[in-house]
Amino acid sequence: MTEAQASASGDGSAPDVETILERATFNADGLLPAVIQQHDTLEVLMLGWMDAEALRRTLTTGRVTYWSRSRQEYWRKGDTSGHAQYVHQAALDCDGDTLLVQVEQIGAACHTGDRTCFLADVLNPVVGAPAE
Amino acid sequence: MTEAQASASGDGSAPDVETILERATFNADGLLPAVIQQHDTLEVLMLGWMDAEALRRTLTTGRVTYWSRSRQEYWRKGDTSGHAQYVHQAALDCDGDTLLVQVEQIGAACHTGDRTCFLADVLNPVVGAPAE
Predict the structure, then answer these.
(1) SS3 for B52?
(2) Which pLDDT tens digit goes with each residue over A14-54?
(3) What sign for the dihedral angle of Cα A74, A79, A85, A87?
(4) Among A19, A63, B89, B100, which residue's Cβ finds the most Cβ atoms within 10 Å?
(5) What pTM does this model have?
């Protein structure tokens, strides 16, 4: 491989992608949200959208791939920017309609140049705490 | 307040919620995804959906409130389960269509009893790494 080195999954075997795709629940547009988290610092970097084919590519190639809703095309993160996301681990949530991907993020995750997409608009909400 | 103690936001003033609601971008169903993260361990706990009113309640009351798509009603996390989410910080992403909320999670975030919704279906994808 020229752009990445991919290795077998955590348990030493290839994931059973067809079975995973059957468990995954996509919305009316055929998409599910993917939360992207840096694997070691645990920063939430961004949220992107995947259809079944983007999910298949993400699980089998070692690189995170999205479906771009604005451009209506597959978008392998980093191909333009160099800011690739290498897959470390992934999980579906309890009802199969959200994906969490832990990655090694090269450079900035955000197109603005920020490390994460959540640095630009911090809201300072009212803080809550359990009653005494 | 009987169920929570709320205090002023991080900068000492109430957030300008009307301005935030104008910046937030909701989908065709009037919703945006909210990624929920434990504020200290940085675990990603779950993803829920908010409409403008749920976002307003989340930012102003100190407790995370969702719109339940299945039940078509507001759902303040913990009112039934006791597993409340107390708001610590929140941010919109770079294009305003995703929310990240850092919380103090009481007990399990997942309705299954798991601490997070992402423990039940770990996928062991092919692992990627930059080429040498």
Answers:
(1) helix
(2) 679 999 999 999 999 999 999 999 999 999 999 999 999 99
(3) positive
(4) B100
(5) 0.93
